[in-house]
Design brief:
The protein folds into 2 domains: 1-43, Single Sheet (N-terminal domain of TfIIb), CATH 2.20.25.10; 45-137, 2-Layer Sandwich (GMP Synthetase, Chain A, domain 3), CATH 3.30.300. It is 31% helix and 27% strand. It has helices spanning 45-67, 107-120, 122-127, and strands at 9-12, 18-21, 27-29, 77-86, 92-101, 132-137. By secondary structure, it is of the alpha+beta class. α1 packs across α2. The N and C termini lie far apart (35 Å). The protein is built from 3 helices and 6 strands, in the order βββαββααβ.
Length: 138
Amino acid sequence: MEKMYTAEVTATGGRRGHVKSSDGIIDMQLAMPTHMGGQGDKTNPEQLFAAGYAACFQSALLVVAARHKERLDPDATVTAHVDLLKLDDNGFGLGVKLVVNLKGTDAAKARQMVDEAHQICPYSVGTRGNIDVQLEVV
C-alpha cells in the first residue's frame, strides 16, 4: 500500500467548536443542527462527512466511466444523505444513502457503474462493514 495524501484537520470544542486544516483552507466554526437543539447556522460533522463522501464517490464514478469508455454528463450528481443514529447501547453511529443521478446513462449501465464505484471509492472501502450504505440510482 502506498500513501498518496494525508489530510490533517484539528478540532477543538466538539460539535459546538471549531475545525481547521493544516493548510488553513478549512477554518470554520461548528454548530449543532437545529434538529438537535442547535442554531443550525454553521456546518456540522455529518455535513462535512457527506460532502467528502459525495465528492469522493463522484470521482470514483469518473474512474469507472473511463474504464467503460463512457463519458458522464457534466450535470451528473451524487447526493450523500448522512444520518446520525442513536444506537440501542446508548452509543451513536452513522447511516448513509448515496443518491446517484447519471443523467443520460442507461439505467442498467448506471447501476453497474454505481456498484463498481462503490467497490473502489475510498469512503466506501473505509466504511464497509461499519456503516450501512444504501445506493440509489435515479
